[in-house]
Amino acid sequence: MGPGVVLVQGNNGHGKSNLLEALYLLVIAKSQRASTERELVRRESVGVEFFSQVAAVVQREDGPVRVQVDFKNTVSESSGDDANNRLNVQKYVRVNGIPRRASELVGEINAVMFSAQDLDMVYGSPGLRRRYMDILISQVDREYLRAVQRYQRVVVQRNHLLKGIKAGRSRPSDLEFWDGELVKSGGAVVARRREALEALSKGASRTHATLTDDDDILELAYRPSFTIDGRHTPEDIGEAMREALAKVHSREIAQGFSVRGPHRDDFQLLLNGMDVGLYASRGQARTAVLALKLAEAEYLRDVRNQQPVLLLDDVLSELDAPRRRLVLERVSNYSQVFITTADVDVIEPKYLSNMKRFVVDRGQLERVNA
Prior knowledge:
Layout: E1 4-9, H1 16-28, E2 50-60, E3 63-75, E4 87-95, E5 98-100, H2 102-105, E6 111-114, H3 120-123, H4 126-140, H5 142-166, H6 175-211, E7 218-223, H7 234-247, H8 249-255, E8 266-271, E9 274-275, H9 276-279, H10 282-304, E10 309-313, H11 321-331, E11 336-341, H12 349-352, E12 355-361, E13 364-367
Parallel strand pairs: 1-11, 1-12, 6-10, 10-11
Antiparallel strand pairs: 2-3, 3-4, 4-5, 7-8, 8-9, 12-13
């Protein structure tokens, strides 16, 4: 489509969000909302074999890159009468035509997704915020992604051992090895998260100041599940984690799962030192999250030295006119931006005239002539 701002307009339920979700699928190799590939299949397609593809050619400074994610749907003959139970969806990833693991797609395209669900960053579970951090940092640091994957595998093995100790099948002394493995990956994960969140906090604070007329100060605070006491290197953080694990062995054995480590960590958005989720109005929370997402775009641009694609899914309608102008001015500085809306009137003519416009109607995309 070339550089610039692309506006996708249309009534709700006709496919605007699906388009942006498909683009973001090429960033993280999975749906932003669905937990499994099966959930991506349209209900009308259940029980039918089909093949689908999401693909794009990305123009980067080092040359064009073609990324694609293919889905093949097959129906098993022997998994009961329910078609949903018999549905098998296989995913295949290619970069420049070469098969790759899904994790290897992360970082080929950098993008920031804005949506109405972003308020979950404030009101949602810690798991959503951890996922946010992991996706963001993985886009700029493959080593971080590998550390997270190693850590997750170790947690599974360690939890299995804890259950075995509780049942009398294993010895408590066996924890020493898995504590070491947990600490090795966990220290690296926490150190990188803290570093990234520190940079994000500075950017979000600056951006928040431009979005508001008051003196409120926005900060992001990392909340680890164990005491770090100012330690910063992966090794030092790992040592603090080892000390924390030693104190909770009995509790972990009784419960049968690991209770300390980055899989239990969180971060908070603070407005004047107060938790946004508990003390701010919904409008203040929306502005705080918007500042965070704009800071995310800056972070990706500065670390990767290339501009991310911005995907704004029907967020302008939830902002007042001054904030809409500020957002449109800010995002217009990026090479490519996709904006969806069901109400074109919320966009002022001076911005609208510079956009490439498309209409979505029942899943079909058509160009609007100027």
